[in-house]
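Limitations
The C-alpha cells in this dataset are predictions for the assembled complex, not deposited experimental models. Users should treat interface geometry with appropriate caution, especially where small molecules or nucleic acid strands are included. An illustrative entry is reproduced here so readers can see what is and is not provided.
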Amino acid sequence: MSSTHTSPPTANRRLETFSYDDQIVKSFVIATVLWGAVAILLGVVIAFQLAEWRLNFGVPWLTFGRLRPLHTNAAIFAFCGNAIFAGIYYSHQRLCKARLFSDLLSRIHFWGWQVIIVLAAVTLPFGITTGKEYAELEWPIDLLITTIWVVFAVNFFGTLVRRRERHIYVAIWFYIATIVTVAVLHIVNSMELPVTLLKSYSLYSGVQDALVQWWYGHNAVAFFLTTPFLGLMYYFIPKAANRPVYWYRLSIIHFWSLVFIYIWAGPHHLLYTTLPEWAQTLGMVFSIALWMPSWGGMINGLMTLRGVWDKVRTEPGLRFMATSLTFYGMATFEGPLLSIKSVNAIAHFTDWIPGHVHSGTIGWNYMMIAGVLFYLVPKLWNSELYSKKLANLQFWFATIGLVFYIVSMWVAGITQSLMWRAMDDAGRLIYPNFIETVVKIVPMYWVRAIGGTLVLVSFFLMIYNLYMTAKRGKKRGVEVYESYALDDSSLEPGASSHRKLEGLPMVFSVLSVVAILVGSAIEIVPSLMAKNYIVKMDVVRPYTPLELYGRDIYIREGCYTCHSQTVRPMTHEVLRYGKPSEAAEFVYDHPFQWGSKRTGPDLARAGGKYPHMWHYKHFYDPRAVTAGSIMPRYTWLFDNKIDYSTLSKKLAVMKKLGVPYATEEITNAVAIAQAQAAEISKELVENGVPAKIEQMEVVALISYMQRLGVDYGQLPETPVELPSTEVK
Amino acid sequence: MEILIILLPLALLLGATFIGAFIWSARQGQYDDLETPRFRMLLEEKNINRSSTPREDRK
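Predicted assembly:
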C-alpha cells in the first residue's frame, strides 16, 4: 500500500520515502516497565503500612505520608506518562505517515522526563513537597515539567504538520486534547511563590486553592489517565484485533463531547465544603453527563471486537484491552454515581475513593498498557511473544488482585462511613471515638495489601515475559516506507492552499492558549493579591511565625494524606468535630490542606481539644494515647531542631501573597517564634519533659495543631476527656 | 471567589479553543468521510528497504 489517499495520485504529487523513529518508542517502553514496577511496589508498601503501622520503620523517608505522594506521582507521571509517550510516538508516526518531527527533541523529551521522575524520587521522600495532591513537586521541577511538555508539544505538532495523510484519525484528536489541556492545568495549578530553592507557597489560598487544585486534580485524571488512553485504545485495539473501529462517527462524537464536558466536573471533589453551592451543583451535573460519552467510548471499543471475540481468548494483548475497557466502563459508571451529592456524603473521605481510583488506574490504565505492550514489544523487537501461558497467568493475578482491592475498599469505605454517622435515639454518636471506626476496617487493609501484592506479581510476570520476548528478537535494518506528500490535489475546494499551513491552526491555538494564559496571569495576579480581595473577618488572624513553621512540618510529613481539615455541615460531623467550616477560616492557608481522605479524624477543629502534653505523647507514639491507632510514630520531630534561618523570609513571602503580617512581625519572626516555643515547652517541662524540647520541631507542630480552627470554631465549654485507651 | 476570574475564562477559553479546532476540522473536510479512515488505519505499509529484513522474513 504505497498510496493510501482516497483520491488517486496525480503527477504533481511528490513520492517521498521515510522511516519511523522506533528507537525512541523502545526507550519509552523500557522506562514504562521499569517505573511501573517501582510505582506498584511503592503502592504495595504503603498498603501494608496502613495495615501494620510498624512497617513505617520509624524512618522519616519511609513513612506513609511521604511515600504516598511518591506512589501517586510514580504511577501517574512515571508509569502512565512513559506508556503514553511510547504509545503516542508509535501510533502518531504511523497515523501521520511521517517520522517524528525531530530526533533531538524526542531524546530531550525522553531524558528530560526521566530526570523529572528521578527528581521526584529524591525530593518527595525527604518531605520536599508543595502539599497539593498529585501536584506535590516543588517549583523548580514544575518549571522543568513545563519545559519538557513544550518539547513534547512541538515534536508532536511538528509531526502533525508534516503528515502525509490528510485525515486526522480520531486517536490524534485525543492526543491533541491531552497535550493542550495538561499544559494549561499544570501551569495554573503550579502557580507558587518560592521561598527557597526547595520551598514555595501556593499563590492561591483556602477555598480558592481548593477549587484550582481539584480543577487540576480531576482533569489530571481526565486528560492524563483518560484521553491519551482512549487515543491509544482507538489505535491499538483495531490494530491488535485487525478489525476497524466499530463506529467511527461515534468515536468523533465521543471525543468532542468528552472534551467539552470533562473540564467542568472538578468541583465534585469538593461537595459539602465551603465552595459555593452553585459550583458544587455544576460539578455534579457535568459529572453525571460524563457517563454518556464514557460509555459511548467503551461500547465503541468493545464492539470493535465483534466477530473476533475468540481472539480475546487466545491473544493476551486483546484480552488485556477488552478487560481494560470493561473496568473503564465500571469506573466511569461509579464516578458519576459518586458525584451525586447524597452518594458523595457517604463515600467522600472513605476508602471507597481509593477503591474507585484503582479500578481506573489498575483496571483501565495498567491493563491497557499491558495490552499495548504485548502489541508493541514483539513488533519493535521483531519477535514473537515469549509465552502466552505466562501472559494468561499475569492476567489472572492482575484481575483477581484488583477485585480484592476494589471489593475490600467498598466494604471498608461503607462500613466506616456508616459507623461515622451512626447515632442512637438520643442523638448521640454511637462510635464517638474515631479509632473504633479504624480498628474495624484494618482487616480490609490487609485484604487490599494482598490484592496489591497480586497485582505486583502480575507486573513482574509481564516484565519477564516482555524481556524474554525482546531477547528472542531478530536483528533487522531500518525499514523504509514511501508515500505521497500532501498537496492541493487532495484538498477540498476552498481549503487552505499549502500543506504546511494546515497544521498551523493547531500550533496557533496552542501558542494562543499559552499567550492568553500568561496575559491573564499578569493581569489578574496583582488583583488576587490585593488586600481588598481578602475576606475581612477580624476573628481570623494569620498564623504566628511558629505556627507557620509547624504548618510547613505538617505539609512536609504529608499529614493531609490521612487527615482532612474541613467539617461538612452534617449532624454527625458537627457532633464529632464541631462547627462546620467556613470559607473565611482558610484565607491565610497557602496552600489549603483540606485533604481528601480520613484515615485519621478531621483536624479542622483540633486546636485546644487536647493539652500540649497529649500531642507530645501522640507524636512520639500515637498508641500511648490512642490504643489501636495505625498512625506512624514521628520520633524524629523530637530530635530535629527548628531551623529558624528562613522563617522571616517565609513570612515575607506570605505577606506578598496577601497575608497581613506587620513589618516588625517579619523582622522579629524568630524572636516571636522562640517566645511561643518557650511558652509551649513550659507546660511540657512541667510534665517531666527535658527542657531542650523547646528547640525541637515537635513544639512547632504542636503550636500549629493547637491553632487549628480556634479562631472561628467554637471551643468546647467543658474540658474534653482524653479518649479511652480501651477499644471495644 | 475571585479565583473564578481566572478559572471561568480559562475553562471558556479551553472550550473556545476546542470549538475552534472543531470548526477548523469540520471545514477542512475531516468529517466528510467517516467510513474509510477506520479501514485505512489498519493497512500496514510496505517496507521498501529489501535489505533490512532477512530473506526468510520477506513476504
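Some entries come with short summary sentences. For this one: Chain A has two domains: 21-483, 545-707.
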